[in-house]
User: What shape does this take?
Amino acid sequence: MNEFTAWRRPAVYALATNPPTTARLAADLPISLHDDDGDLPPALAPFLLAGPGDVTNLAAGQVTGRRPHAGCVDAEATLMAHVELAAADLPWRYSPQPHSPGLLAVRPWMILVVGTTAEVARLADGRVRLNSQGLTRGRTLFDWHPLGDAHRWAHVHTVAGRGPFSRVICPRQLDTGTDYMAALVSGWQATVSPDGTSTLSDSWGAGAGTVTLRCFDSWGFRTTTEQGDFASIAQRLDPLTDGEQALLVERQFGRSRVQVGPVPGAVLAAGGALSVVPGPGDPPVVDSLPPDVAATIEALASDLDASGRWVLTVPRYDVPWHEGPVDGQDWQWPPPGDDVVPDGWRRQLRADPRHRGAAGLGAWAAIAWQDRIMAAAAQQAAQVATAAQRIRHLTLGLRASRSLWSRRVPADPVARLATLAPLLGRMPVDVGGNALNAVAGRTPALAPALFSSAARRMLRRRGPLARAAAPGAASVAALLAAANSCPPPQTLPPEVTRILDAMADPEKAEGLAGELRQRADHILTELYGNADEAGLLAQSLIEDPGTSTELLAAVRGRAPASSCSPLPDLPAFAGAVAAGVDPTVPRPAAATRVLATISGLREPVLAEPDVSPELDIPLWKFLSDHAPDWLLPGAGDVPADRVLAVQTNPAFVDTLLIGANVQTLGELRWRNLPITTRWTPLRRFWQRVDVGAGESATDIRPVVALDTDLPLWPDASPLGDLSHLSDPSHGANLVVVLHTELFRRYPATLVYLVPNPGGRDVWGQVPPVDPNPDPAKQPLPRAYPSFSGTLSPDLVFFGFGVPPSAGFDHWLVLEEPPPGYRFAYTDGDASPEGASFAANTFDPPVRVFLGNLL
Assistant: This one.
């Protein structure tokens, strides 16, 4: 919600009620003095307020916005230039206008002047020269900026979620295709008389003249050469009239005709990538294929018997996805099982000249764009080469480790544990930590050092320790088995037993405490080896008898810690450790870790990976540039300022992409890229986007699955079948074509569809589309375009992920991109102050609803 206020000044101006006699406004501050002897009569303390002549510059950050933007080359001539200021009271802060109760408007001290480069010139010293000599629309520069109306050109703007700020508007009407300079200047000038007094006067008057003023901000811009704005252009958009519709039908808009050369007189109806949506009683876009044409064309694609010699014939576009011979068999042509389903997509590619022509267009695109396609494939092949090198290193390591494991690792589990003991510190366990922490310390003899590589070197079979020990005593396996047991219970010496017995008896404990105090000096000296330090501690025991008693009580209550829990099954633990690093299993742990860093592998994962690139190259643009009549036949016949609905042709898209993939596969192999057999690298025709996920999307599925090597296109399915589409929820999509300059001038225009509450029959009030805080009054869902394109600068299309029938019962909505706050020039506006002037000229973004698309 926008709220405009006419003016705002600091509260101190309420004290300035008299007209100024100098360049500064005078004010009186009433002062009253109170003391014990009584109150003194009130007095006025006069002071001066700073005026326009005292301002030399604006603080940094005060100018927060300029419209049009500095350097703009396509500003709309229907809007007024303005400048936004951070301080809400800045335009009136230094105005010399006195205060009076109920003041409706205050003339701002700063004025935004906009003129041509001949009228407004920035000087080298930072000042600006205003030249009001020439006439524009019958007015001079000063006539466009009469200072008597300046109170209407400034206001305070308050917006929810943002503090108030101020704005100064220039009331001048702009012309198209003109360079302008905007300058923020003072509306008053201070002059000094010979007697030293200063006075204020208007910076300019009406009519002609030239004046040089201090400039607080300036910028340049240029207006567009084209007439109108978003609202006026969008207002011209309409559906086709009946006459225009009949003319397009007569000119076969959205339909193509294919003449079959080998069959004289055969002309077949076909569709391009976009085709019309047939209405009731309209002929189909694509005719059925006559049998004689099918037989003639299929014979041309058959293999020729030339005494065993290979003969080049017309392309067989389905061959790259044939299963081919089984491993171990010799290649033969035609391959076994080359028979095709009579009505399937393979036979259509062989027998239907329209599909063969579309496939040829795809092959043409792959030839023309081969460098672009190869560059994209090579970039992905480089990533595959990195993965291949990693797999080669992995397989080499596995082969070497399996050989060492079978030759050097003993079969006995405990002996294996002794061999693998140094790696326990790096082997994680399920409960957290590592295997060494899980086993070390379970018995007093299971020390971490026993599992170290240093212990293995000390206990090696031919080392000095092994030669001096009894046979088998230096075996690490034997030591581990022996260490995994608890030692016998410890027998206390008689002296310790006497002390413990004495502490159990309170009377004897008191005597023991006294003995401790007597011998404290001797005991502590032996303990610390420092007589001075021991003497201080002994003195504290003697001076405080309770200390020795508390010390003995603490010893009596602390049982000696004893923990011994050997592994219940040492061979099982050893077997688990060995299983964790065993390289002879089908998928060793090391292989799992390495392969987890590589995505897109298929079985066998340790084989040399081949390239299966996903080439993000939409082919519709090639068709638009080189064969536009196959993208939308008759597109040039669409009248200006018209909107109409067509549909996609999935069969055409399938066929063109098949032809492009056939040529691309051959080119990749020719350039020695190890492409995956039967892969489909080009699967984007439209520049389609998954609106929900916010990422690019493909048009078709791969012909054959990469992971299972099974066909995803059933042989019996026709071209354009739902099973071929990446999104099989619906086949053809609704596409809206607009012939307008709107998107050339406003490329960020928001486009979407919303359902019509009245269905296809009742077109009344437009539905709500803005969010509503009431959950029960939520707007209808929006359908955003999934792809779009430009056929010519003024002919654009938007494709939606809805069926073509949505054109009967959906609104097409065009929203002007948010331009910031703007104000339209309104000739003859007589607003009395700045708030009403801003409200009357405020120009919100435009939203246009277009219905009855079909």
The first strand starts at residue 2 and ends at 5.
